Amino acid sequence: MRAPVDTIAAPPFPARLPWVNVAPLRMDKQIGRPVLIEFWDFCRPNSLHTLPYVQAWHERYEAAGLRVISVHAAGFPPGHDEDAVRAAVARLGIEHPVVLDPQLEIWTWFANRGWPSRYLFDQQGKLFEYHHGEGDYHGTERAIQELLGVEREPVPYVRPQDDPAAMVVVPTADVEGAYSGPYEAGEVWAVVSGAGALHVDGRTVAVEHPGAVLLVEHDRHTEGVLALEPGDGVTVHATCFGAGLAA
Question: DSSP character for 30?
Answer without folding.
Answer: G
